[in-house]
Amino acid sequence: MSVATSLDRRVEQIAQLAVGIGANVQPDQIVTLAVEPGQEPISRAVAEAAYKRGAKFVDVGYFDPHVKRSRLRHAPRETLAFVPSWTGERTLAIGEAGAARIAFQGPVEPHLLDDVDPELLGIDMLPRTRESITVTMKQQTNWCIVPFPTPGWAQLVHPDMEPDAAHERLWLEIERILRLDEPDPAAAWEARIAQLHALSSRINELTLDHLRYVGPGTDLTVGLLPGSTWISGAMENIHGVRFTANLPTEETFTAPDPLRVDGFVTATKPLLIPGAAPIEGLKVRFEGGRAVQIDADNGAETLRAMCAKDEGAARIGEVALVDRESRIGQSGTVFYSILLDENAACHLALGNAYPFSVADGPDRERANQSSIHIDFMVGSDHVAVTGVRTDGSEVPILRDGAFVV
Prior knowledge:
Layout: H1 3-22, E1 30-35, H2 40-52, E2 57-62, H3 65-74, H4 85-96, E3 100-105, H5 118-121, H6 130-137, E4 142-147, H7 151-157, H8 163-177, H9 185-205, E5 208-215, E6 218-224, E7 231-232, E8 234-236, E9 242-244, E10 252-254, E11 256-266, E12 283-287, E13 290-295, H10 300-307, E14 316-321, H11 327-331, H12 338-341, E15 347-351, H13 362-366, E16 373-377, E17 384-389, E18 394-399, E19 402-403
Parallel strand pairs: 1-2, 1-3, 3-4
Antiparallel strand pairs: 5-6, 5-17, 6-11, 7-10, 8-9, 10-14, 11-12, 12-13, 14-15, 15-16, 17-18, 18-19
Helix pairs in contact: 1-2, 4-6, 7-8
């Protein structure tokens, strides 16, 4: 098999996963693709696969980070938060159409913005928009985010390897993580999703009041709402279409009480916000639910600027539990990708909550609201997670990186 044929086969496998067990594209459905230059092979393969499934129209939207770099370097600071109205209107129209949304993760040119003021990266949020969060929270679309290996990403992940070898290594890791090494990847994902659903059900039965994280540089209490409900990555939109929002997915998550987060936490992996430079050595201190101090070895200015976006931006909207048994965790690789790294370790998210992870009723109105949603990793073999019930009794959840619940 030639190199080109082998690559085509690999790309096609990811495309089939994205339109199948991932977004679950329906006949006569509009499909939107969020793409950067350099990701053309996977966008074209997904378009091919989507049309074969009966898609009505595939709409490809390219965001060029080089254009963003020019704006950040030359545009007046006071204009950087501006987003044309039609950008958000397009996103809302996609939601109203009940489209399928597919996006690809993995930096194409990871060092492109290294010379840009980190604080400015927290002001210009594009390609993220407030409207995209609105559509997601209303569950109007079936959607999926999948990784796609590029040479630039491979060099970031494996800087000590030759470029071709690094790219091949990343491909092999992504194939295993996506279960493409299984005879039937979709069936393998159905089995894994069933395991995560069972885990979520067991934690829900505990009726926890709060979680306690203790480890090096971490002593954090995260309160839960009475209606906080643990769910996995398999979801259903308002039209009854089942989908898997993240591939891979290895988590169970819920929305916490945004007013009851106290203590301090040290991130256990670098945080790479799409379109920004990595944030290394992140440390956050919370009081009364709010992040009152954000420090890092580098990149703290980016996250501080993002947390100033609105009242809810400095509060926690998601708490997720992941153990070391995930294939991502087993790899031992830091991928500099929120999609992958968040599914290798427990994580928290600053900003908007997923309201559908709170039982319908008054508690759902209490879930955090914001225009941002930024995950950062806080779990490791050295961080113990304990659940505490309303009567004060404690239940070990994670020890030495493994679930014990």
